TrEMBL record:
This is Uncharacterized protein. It comes from Nannocystis pusilla.
Length: 137
């Protein structure tokens, strides 16, 4: 005998009169990028000089963003160019990269890239229009 069934409706706006309606608010692309940016390993000296903010919990302890982001995105850093990088960039004297064997981070990076391309839309060719006067004789 099958168990009980429930109907849940996902909505963009609150529906207080509808039983089982759940308001679903999604992040913007920029909000999603900000969220996964917490998966970047920040060099300790960047914290020390105030180049990046330090998030603290309610007790004043440094917040561990890995508890929130999990394996969603991990970007490593080092002074030497990585050998096993899926993507890498040299920035402010350090190498930052996603490891080629980190499937979760590679998937997240690819997803963000694809959504960014979709939101960019079609780029139209805005070539100048040339008008030539042609006189009839």
């Amino acid at each position: 005998m099958p168990g009980p069934t429930y109907k849940i409706t996902l909505t963009e706006a609150p529906r207080p009169d509808e039983v089982g309606a759940v308001q679903l608010v999604t992040r913007s692309l920029l909000g999603g990028m900000y969220y996964v940016s917490h998966g970047v390993e920040v060099p300790p000296e960047d914290y020390a000089i105030g180049r990046v903010p330090t998030t603290r919990d309610g007790d004043g302890n440094v917040f561990d963003w890995a508890r929130m982001t999990g394996a969603l995105m991990r970007v490593h850093h080092a002074a030497r160019e990585p050998k096993n990088a899926y993507v890498s960039v040299f920035y402010r004297g350090l190498w930052f990269w996603i490891a080629d064997n980190d499937l979760d981070s590679k998937s997240t990076f690819s997803f963000i890239t694809q959504v960014l391309e979709l939101q960019s839309g079609e780029i139209k060719n805005n070539a100048p229009v040339l008008t030539l006067p042609i006189a009839a004789e």
